[in-house]
UniProtKB/TrEMBL annotation:
Family label: Belongs to the cation transport ATPase (P-type) (TC 3.A.3) family. Type IV subfamily.
Protein name listed in UniProt: Phospholipid-transporting ATPase
Gene that this polypeptide is encoded by: ATP11A
Organism: Balaenoptera musculus
Example GO biological process: positive regulation of myotube differentiation
Reported cofactor(s): Mg(2+)
Its EC number(s): 7.6.2.1
GO cellular component: early endosome; endoplasmic reticulum membrane; plasma membrane; recycling endosome
Record has Transmembrane as a keyword: yes
Recorded superkingdom: Eukaryota
Reaction(s) the record says it catalyses: a 1,2-diacyl-sn-glycero-3-phospho-L-serine(out) + ATP + H2O = a 1,2-diacyl-sn-glycero-3-phospho-L-serine(in) + ADP + phosphate + H(+); a 1,2-diacyl-sn-glycero-3-phosphoethanolamine(out) + ATP + H2O = a 1,2-diacyl-sn-glycero-3-phosphoethanolamine(in) + ADP + phosphate + H(+); ATP + H2O + phospholipidSide 1 = ADP + phosphate + phospholipidSide 2
């Protein structure tokens, strides 16, 4: 009896084998392996149903309510509403319940509609037909019925229904082409490879006979990583084990191209597919404005509690006088007299909390959300940020950080593809000290392409010629380029000067540039067919090399290798990579000559790569195969084992030469950096390039200037001095020269002060970040930060992706807590983009991973200037005014209610009618400030672009500092005092109507409320600089709506609405001449201090923005004529008010 199954089960369940948790086993076609094979525990996997919706019909109401009441403001108003229901409070529960109901309902409808659309999309996807292989024939079923282990057939232009292991293809070579535009936005064709032992299975019957099991990792969201292995069983032999990687995995959402059909086995289905796992949102980022808003809310909550406590104490002090607690007309019952004093006091405290709770603006959160959501469209609609060349425009992935764009203090940018075009052009190559330049000009004539010209010495001898050709073969073979015929290619990259019309496509533009460059020097890469790489040499002979192994490039090793076998049976390892990763592994070759040429090219800003090789004997190759196979089939730590294997293989190399390609700067990159520096923003360049190349690019883009003194913390310098000595020497140099730069002068644009630039490499950064032996981990970091603060620009070269994130984090959490922005275009920039406060991706040639993981995406680096200096500036100005204005108008609203208690015996009598309490924040004052926060332009767009220094006026959260917040609060208190006591003193003459009637309580409250609505609305009108017809309609329309509503509510317009309390109150107030005078006079007195303060400040201590506004105001008449090409909605230029 075979007890292997029992043993396996006991071992795994009792001994706790980790493999059952960390990996999964899939039976291909649901066929169990033959007897005697290792037994596996079947695992439960979900079906292929995609659920992107958040709610169901049954859980929508409870789940949505739970999520909304998790917000502290909503929960607070819910408590207030419940208190109003439970105890006897001075205001109706409607006054709190209706605004809360409005906010909750609007949000629920919006979220419900969005979820309904997701349900429709899910249903369409889940019911899509899919072809299964079942019992040797094709069966058509709905996609949602697909299970892990099913064999699926996909035809050309169809989308893969789940994550599949690629088994076979209609192509003879077992490859297929796919596009992943819906996953990562890349439209280029990618090549995937079928499993070597199954690519010959071309029919349904063949697939049904396949015996195989797949072991792989559990589902994880990384689109570019997969680890697994397949065991293919035959009747006679032991199973064949093959490694599986990302090149064998076809992802759900990708589309099959240029391939008639493929077969694959489902390995991840439904919500376990990589596409579904990437639905999960990134960690939430919060802006500085949102944090300030929450702090202000806490302050106002404390004010609210203080008001309630003061009134509760004053009530019992007032009632301590005889007969005040129980007047003769309002005697208490015996039960009321026996009631506990503390319970009565607590009830009164809650009643006062309810009475004053409107100081916390419930509608502010909704208004802020609407402002951010609607405001984000101004970026996507900006035609100046649309790139005609690529057809791409800006994208907003999150609108929560709009205002953060106006607070950036540090910009961390990648170099390649961000500052540069990532459009490589082959310039030269150096082979054993001889330099070759394609299309070189000699005596005014362009030499033919195949004539490689030696720019230094005479042509090399016979041995040199052999090395030269070996170098060109190495460049032609050491890459991962695909070759397509021009007719079927999706890209424009055609091989120049070739008789054959073809296109080179690669994930790396460097590889295409190198292969095209050596083609102009006589060696043409033709194709990869049946695992043989073909190239054409100078004699037009076709050479074939069998591709044995590819040692893929990664950002840690910074090199790649191929192992090939020539037609004569010789085995070569060709390796290319950065000079820092090749030179230490070289044992032979003209290292000094090539190194000097590499350094010279780097100084000129060229990107350099070194090429080396070594010959392998058969025994060496067999050892390498075993080493790589063991690493490739490992399910645990495969990346580490492969890295160790590559390290052992890529050594004892012979240096052949080096290449140089040029990556031109992007258009207006230098202008953009210069503008950012003038705006007071520090720009750091973080790149993986070598120091000389990166420094040349920094000079070209004006990050460094000719008078900039460069300070270095590099590996080369640390070989001569200790890190401690280097840092202290640099610190002493900066402080001795008095170059401590503040925010106003650190841009290095002044000729008076010495301008410093810092260069640091990845190895030096590792030493700085590493804890010291004495345990004090932060001292080097602080010293390093002090040096950086006093440098106008910093260049970090030789940076690994995680080191980029480390740099951003180091600055982000320094003691000043500056706002950081990271911008990049490649997958290696994703870590720093996620780490920074604001992440911006560039839709570049290295794919769209950066754009997908960013908060915003732009087509070119030059668009960053307008995004920060214009859009960011406007966003911050608008939302800061919105937040301050909301608190101001609620102080104006509730402080008269507080004062009124001193005149009504602290009886909790309301000053305003219930309708006014309810609609003040919802209707009467909400729309004007929302429109202001969307359209206000205190300075013209062109002025902001022309004068970047205006950005400094709003730096460091300038408009939401405590000084500004206190000013707005005291302004609200002053206006409330004017409203209340102005109306009160007018009421001292009680016979104010023509017929001798007296004004009552509700008339007094309506007068105060009317003055308040007009004051807060006109205050916003005075603050508005950019007037359009929409502003006029909304501001004056909201005042008109208040008047019409009051007449309607008082039974004047519609007699059926004769609400008893307010019946004819409003019209009675307006029938009095003193009331009209009071309204006009009190509004003027309320607005006067703010107007005087602004006039004095602008005349005596004007900011840069106010100076620009004044000059723009003088030019306004000359610029008033509209331009015919401007939109009708907006004025041609923002017309600031005259002061």
């Amino acid at each position: 009896m075979d007890c292997s199954l029992v043993r396996t089960l006991v071992h795994r369940y009792c001994a706790g084998e980790e493999e059952c948790v960390d990996s999964r086993t899939v039976y291909v076609g649901h066929r169990e392996p033959p007897p005697g094979a290792e037994a596996y525990i079947p695992q439960r996997c979900p079906d292929n149903r995609i659920v992107s919706s958040k709610y169901t019909f049954w859980n929508f109401i409870p789940k949505n309510l739970f999520e909304q009441f998790r917000r502290i403001a909503n929960f607070y108003f819910l408590i207030i509403f419940l208190v109003q229901l439970i105890i006897d409070t001075p205001t109706s529960p409607v006054t709190s319940g209706l605004p809360l109901f409005f906010v909750i309902t609007v949000t629920a409808i919006k979220q419900g509609y969005e979820d309904w659309l997701r349900h429709k999309a899910d249903s369409a996807v889940n019911q899509c037909p899919v072809h299964f292989v079942q019992h040797g024939r094709l069966v058509r079923k709905q996609s949602r019925k697909l299970r892990v282990g099913d064999i699926v057939m996909v035809k050309e232009d169809e989308t893969f229904p789940c994550d599949l292991i690629f088994l076979s293809s209609s192509r003879v070579d077992g490859t297929c082409h796919v596009t992943t535009a819906s996953l990562d936005g890349e439209s280029s064709h990618k090549t995937h490879y079928a499993v070597q032992d199954t690519k010959g299975f071309h029919t349904e019957e063949d697939m049904d006979s396949l015996h195989a099991t797949i072991e792989c990792e559990q589902p994880q969201p990384d689109l570019y990583r997969f680890v697994g292995r397949i065991n293919v069983y035959s009747d006679l032999n032991d199973p064949v084990v093959r490694p599986l990687g990302s090149e064998n995995l076809l992802l759900r959402g990708a589309t099959l191209k240029n391939t008639e059909k493929i077969f694959g086995v489902a390995i991840y289905t439904g919500m376990e597919t990589k596409m579904a796992l990437n639905y999960q949102s990134k960690s939430q980022k919060r802006s500085a404005v949102e944090k300030s808003m929450n702090v202000f809310l806490i302050v106002y909550l404390c004010i609210l509690i203080s008001k309630a406590l003061i009134n509760t104490v004053m009530k019992y002090v007032w009632q301590s006088e005889p007969f005040r607690d129980e007047p003769w007309y309002n005697q208490k019952t015996e039960a009321e007299r026996q009631r506990n004093l503390f319970l009565r006091a607590f009830t009164d405290f809650l009643a006062f909390m309810v009475l004053f709770n409107y100081i916390i603006p419930v509608s502010m959160y909704v208004t802020v959300e609407m402002q951010k959501f609607l405001g984000s469209y101004f970026i996507t609609w900006d035609e100046e940020m649309f790139d005609e060349e690529t057809g791409e425009g800006p994208l907003v992935n999150t609108s929560d950080l709009n205002e953060e764009l106006g607070q950036v203090e540090y910009v961390f940018t990648d170099k390649t593809g961000t500052l540069t075009e990532n459009n490589m052009e082959f310039k030269e190559c150096c082979v054993e000290g001889h330099v070759y330049v394609p299309h070189a000009i000699c005596n005014g004539q362009v030499l033919p392409a195949a004539a490689a010209i030696d720019m230094i010495d005479a042509s090399p001898g016979a041995g040199g010629r052999e090395r030269e050709e070996l170098f060109f073969r190495a460049v032609c073979l050491c890459h991962t380029i695909q070759v397509k015929d021009g007719d079927e290619a999706d890209g424009p990259r055609k091989s120049p000067d070739s008789g054959r019309r073809c296109v080179y496509i690669s994930a790396s533009p460097d590889e295409v540039a190198l292969v095209e460059g050596v083609q102009r020097l006589g060696f043409t890469y033709l194709r990869l067919k049946d695992n043989y790489m073909e190239l054409q040499n100078r004699g037009n002979d076709i050479e074939r090399f069998e591709l044995l192994e590819i040692l893929s490039f990664d950002s840690v090793r910074r090199r790649m290798s191929v192992i090939v076998k020539s037609a004569t049976g010789e085995i070569y390892l060709f390796c290319k990579g950065a000079d820092s990763s090749i030179f230490p592994r070289v044992i032979e070759g003209k290292v000094d000559q090539i190194r000097s040429r590499v350094e010279r090219n780097a100084v000129e800003g060229l990107r350099t790569l070194c090429v080396a090789y070594k010959r392998l004997i058969q025994e060496e190759y067999e050892g390498i195969c075993k080493l790589l196979q063991a690493a490739k089939v490992a399910l645990q730590d495969r990346e580490r084992k492969l890295a160790e294997a590559y390290e052992q293989i890529e050594k004892d190399l012979i240096l052949l030469g080096a290449t140089a390609v040029e990556d031109r700067l992007q258009e207006k990159a230098a202008d953009t950096i210069e503008a950012l520096q003038k705006a007071g923003i520090k720009v750091w360049v973080l790149t993986g390039d070598k120091m000389e190349t990166a420094a040349a690019a920094c000079y070209a883009c004006k990050l460094f200037r000719r008078n900039t003194q460069l300070l270095e913390v590099t590996t080369k310098r640390l070989e001569e001095q200790s890190l401690h000595d280097v840092l202290f020497e640099l610190s002493k140099t900066i402080l001795h020269c008095g170059a401590s730069l503040t925010r106003d002068n650190f841009s290095g644009l002044s000729a008076d002060t010495q301008d410093y630039g810092l260069i640091i490499d990845g190895a030096a950064l590792s030493l700085i970040m590493k804890p010291r032996e004495d345990g004090s981990s932060s001292s080097y970091r602080e010293l390093f930060l002090d040096i950086c603060r006093n440098c106008s620009a910093v260049l970090c070269c030789r940076m690994a992706p995680l080191q980029k994130a480390q740099i951003v984090k180091l600055i982000k959490f320094s003691k000043e807590r500056p706002i950081t922005l990271a911008i990049g275009d490649g997958a290696n920039d994703v870590s720093m983009i996620l780490e920074a406060h604001v992440g911006i991706g560039i839709v570049g040639k290295e794919g769209r991973q950066a754009a997908r993981n960013s908060d915003y995406a732009i087509p070119k680096f030059k668009h960053l200037k307008k995004m920060l200096l214009v859009h960011g500036h406007f966003y911050y100005i608008r939302i800061s005014e919105l937040v301050q204005y909301f608190f101001y108008k609620n102080v104006c609203f509730i402080f008269p209610q507080f004062l009124y208690q001193f005149f009504c015996g602290f009886s909790q009598q309301t000053l305003y009618d219930t309708a006014y309490l309810t609609l003040y924040n919802i209707s009467f004052t909400s729309l004007p400030v929302l429109l202001y926060s969307l359209m206000e332009q205190h300075v013209a767009m062109d002025t902001l672009k022309r004068d970047p220094a205006l950005y400094r006026d709003i730096a460091k959260n300038a408009l939401l500092r405590w000084r500004v917040f206190i000013y707005w609060t005291f302004l609200g208190v002053f206006d409330a005092l004017v409203f209340f006591f102005g109306a009160y003193f007018m009421f001292e003459n009680t016979t104010v109507t023509s017929n001798g009637q007296m004004f009552g309580n509700w008339t007094f409250g309506t007068l105060v409320f009317t003055v308040m609505v007009f004051t807060v609305t006109l205050k916003l009108a005075l603050d508005t600089h950019y007037w359009t017809w929409i502003n006029h309609v909304v501001i004056w329309g909201s005042l008109l709506f208040y008047v019409v509503f009051s007449l309607l509510w008082g039974g004047i317009i519609w007699p059926f609405l004769n609400y008893q309390r307010m019946y004819y109150v409003f019209i009675q107030m307006l029938s009095s001449g003193p009331a009209w005078l009071a309204i006009v006079l009190l509004v003027v007195v309320s607005l006067l201090p703010d107007v005087l303060k602004k006039v004095l400040c602008r005349q005596l201590w004007p900011s840069a923005t106010e100076k620009v506004q004044r000059s723009s105001s003088r030019r306004a008449p000359a610029d008033a004529a509209p331009s015919p090409d401007r939109p009708l909605l907006m004025d041609p230029e923002p017309r600031p008010r005259r002061e």
